[in-house]
Design a protein that fits this description.
This protein has 675 residues and is α/β, with parallel strands linked by helices. Helix content is 46%, strand content 14%.
Length: 675
Amino acid sequence: MKADNSLAPSPLAKRLAVLKGIDKAAYKALQNFLPSIQESAKAEDLIALVDLLCQTFTEEPAGTLALIERLDGLVPEPVSVNVLRRWALDGLQRHRTAHSKRLQYFETSDPLGFADPETQFDTDQVLAHRATLLHYLTGFGVTDLQIDLHAPQVGPTSPQRISVSNDFLLIPQRWSGFSANGLHERKLMYRAAVAHAAAHLQYSPQHLPAGNRHPMLLAMMGLIEDARVERLMAEKYPGLVTLWGRFHVATRESVGFDLNGLAARLARALHDPKYADKNDWVLLGKQMFEDAATNLHDTLKFEIIGRRLAVECTKMRLPFDANSYCVMPAYRDDNVLLWDFNAELSESAEDTEVLDHFELRKQKKEPLHPLPEVGINLQAKRLYPEWDYKLDTLHEDWATVILASRPRPKNKVRHFSKSHELHNSLRFNSLARIPDRSLRLKRLYEGDELDIDAAVESIVQRAGGLAPEPRIFMRHGRRRRSTAILLLMDLSESTKRFVPGSFISVLDIEKRAATLVADSLDASRDRVAVHGFSSNGRNEVHYVSIKDFDDPFGPEQKAKLKNQEGHLSTRIGAALRHASVLLKEEISERKIILLLTDGEPSDVDVFEEDYLVEDARHAVASAKAVGIDSFCLTLDRNADSYVRRIFGSRNYLIADKAGSFADSTAQTLVKLIGK
């Protein structure tokens, strides 16, 4: 017992108890490992390590056990716990739909790939520009390609060039040739790479049998194919010549005479007609290419050029190392898209079948492997990032928001009775109003400006001996600004509990407040939506629309609100991000998210005390950056410790009694709309 107490300080003991409750085998394996690092590791690192293991175990139990077995030698040196965290979470996200690959990732991949700060900088830059690059791809007509990162590797086998497939464009985590100061060049390199990938997808034959071809032959054929598709692409988009040309800088002095250098010089010669190279091999390749360029769609001629260049390299006895060969310039891909390395091709058929395949595809003018069309409901799920405060980074596409299906009303015109409008005007007749320069109130006894017309009439009346008109002032009118409010209800399991001192559940109190909000606002000036959420881990954040902005609060919506039940957990950050996306589409002067909840954020796959609180805080800040205010009403008497961190000191209200919650909601509405 003494040994256990010395190895497990109180905070660590609590974490270990959580892990033991999740899985005793993982707990035992970690207990066997802890003594080896207890003396050298910091207490906070051990706590962070156990938190990480608890989180990974909820998604990949076998992988977590494999990770624990590998911890010896990883923690605390040479891999820090933060590096281990980046590595583990990357594996969970990268292989979130493939269990076998995820398990293999934990068993064999190297966490050192996340230890290099330059690699992390390159990774952050790719993720920061990913949305822009996807729009850039769309401009070339490529709408179904995703941009992601190669899985990090250490050593000479680490990917050095982008890879293109029918579904993904993978960028190396460490892309050489950049520096922190070359941000503009980096953006241009990204664009050049995306445009080159689009050229392959539009003009290259794909997944041809590689057979027993020598790697040097494949490299030469790829070099010629790169030049061919770029020439075709430039005919349609002439500006790409300049973009690609800035990266063709190979010269005899800079790259030398080995095969890699000669290939880079030939690539430049095929792109830049002004570049003069005296090497016979480069001149031969350029001459043959230009002769064949009269018909850029005749792929047979260009394949012959690649074969001829490979034969000449053999005659010159130029050594070729497939591991060290790297396509130049750096924006070009590794040409894996062109070949199927698992397909066999007999020697006798090698020179004819592939060529016939080219010709057949050209005649039929159809893709090699047409994919069947599948009807997919793209509205069913949304992927959102999540903030990791320990790594100070945003995990892209981390949380999955699942939208509850609901039939859209055929008639979106809003109908409201006169009694409803009267009720609204009476309820909020004291709300503050804002100046509107388009409204001018004239002929007033006092005001901000002189009413010129009334003043002239007053002077004329005085001159005629008549009593002058005293109402010679004017001022601008005031109106209440339009507002869009999205009321977001916490529908987690904990809302089933009774409010202390009553026999009313938290969920019933939320429903009353939602009814008050939907019924009370003036429909001619305000737009209201009532939504709810609950969660079962990051992959299942359930989001239900009870009343949308264009819906009336009629019998259908009231029945749906009444039928809501509490279940699962409370992942507030993902729900806030989805609500923000919906509010961004609204045209209003103020946009507000009003969250009704009974407690702090929590979920089944998170065991760190502050993780979801910090993620929710980040979601609130992100919404604020696009003009959306967030406010929280809670029944948790102890909420001050976390709700202030999430929403700020003035953007929350704690109602400690069930009877006061509805009144607090009304007061909050007046405060928010009247700002």
